[in-house]
Design goal:
The structure is a single chain. By secondary structure, this protein is α/β, with parallel strands linked by helices. The chain has a single domain, classed as 2,3-Dihydroxybiphenyl 1,2-Dioxygenase, domain 1, CATH 3.10.180. Strands 1-4-3-2 form a four-stranded mixed beta sheet, with helices on one face. A four-stranded mixed beta sheet has the order 5-8-7-6, covered by helices on one side. A hairpin with a 5-residue loop joins strand 7 and strand 8. Helix 1 packs antiparallel against helix 2. It starts with 11 loop residues before the first strand and ends with a strand.
């Protein structure tokens, strides 16, 4: 997502994971991301708008910045997260501007999903 007009915008997100295949299975099933492998220690993901990577080259360190995804249907997305092996750690709640929930992936990274609906 590089190019003119993207200055100071989130361009790439990288996760240190313990198992690239498991990360691909989770994010592929829960959010329908696509993947491109660059060897056994690195895989790029794409969500259709933003790219990032999974790597086993660093230690898994849950926490860090909260990454927020968008969903039209929060309930269906929360169900897919759980069906894919993730854990909803903060159920759907309202906030000014919409609703959201937080979940943890299989490596313990906490992310959020929001919707204006």
């Amino acid at each position: 997502m590089t190019g003119e007009g993207n200055d100071s915008k989130i361009d790439y997100i990288e996760f240190n994971v313990s198992d690239i295949a498991a990360a691909k299975a989770f994010y592929g099933a829960a959010f329908r991301w696509s993947f491109k492998d660059y060897g056994p220690e690195y895989c790029e993901f794409a969500d259709g708008r933003l790219t990032g990577g999974f790597t086993t080259l660093g230690p898994v360190t849950p926490g860090g910045p909260l990454i927020v995804l968008y969903a039209e249907d929060l309930e269906a997305t929360a169900a897919r997260v759980e069906a894919s092996g993730g854990k909803v750690v903060r159920p759907i709640y309202s906030f000014p501007g919409g609703r959201r929930f937080h979940f943890a992936d299989k490596d313990g990274y906490e992310l959020a999903v929001w919707s204006a609906r």
